Amino acid sequence: MAKQARAAATRHQVLEGAALSFEKLGYGGASLSGILSYADVTKGALYFHFESKEALAWAVIKEQHAMAMLAAQRVLATAQSPTEAILLCAKEMARQLLTEPIVRAGVRLTLELGTSRGPATDPYIDWTDTLVALAGKAREAGELRATVDPAALARFLVSSFTGMQLVSEALTGRADLYERLADMWGLLLPSIASPDMLPRLLELAALRDDVAS
């Protein structure tokens, strides 16, 4: 058991080193020697767990996706309503981008490698599917207007958040990500939320410290 624990710790250490390299340099710019430097492990330790840079990149994407889905499960278990869950999932994604190198690297790699449906696009597909289900429940509960198309809303939210975080990264290193997220909700919610839900949702969208943990 101790040996397995050490192996798991080493594997995670390699993943974190790879994430730092991929985040800074992208897939094309990252090298195995640079990843070794960031990870501070031996070449043998790296190759014991991963056979190539490509294998490392897919592992980072998979880990980022697992982190996002686990966070979504926590939000779904604690949110007071489907619409609140939608807002909190977006806020948690913002938090992960600001605090988790593996998430930042996974998002960059997904954009660089996701040219067609496959492992690199799975995070977007699953994220969209989750939002479609939540938006459908929210509309049925009267939290969203009856005219809202859950699938269209989910596609819009995934695309908007993706573009928003890229612009935020380019201009401020994502320092204004929460502010941009609040702006998005401030513009969108009045057109999709039921009037009785709107004040609570706008208040929730403006908060910065109540993200899932």
TrEMBL record:
It comes from the Bacteria. The keyword DNA-binding applies. InterPro entries: ArpA-like, CprB_TetR_C, DNA-bd_HTH_TetR-type_CS, Homeodomain-like_sf, HTH_TetR, Tet_transcr_reg_TetR-rel_C_sf. Keywords: DNA-binding, Transcription, Transcription regulation. PROSITE patterns: HTH_TETR_1 (PS01081), HTH_TETR_2 (PS50977). One of its GO terms (molecular function) is DNA binding. This is DNA-binding transcriptional regulator, AcrR family. It comes from Rhodococcus koreensis. The lineage of its organism: Bacteria, Bacillati, Actinomycetota, Actinomycetes, Mycobacteriales.
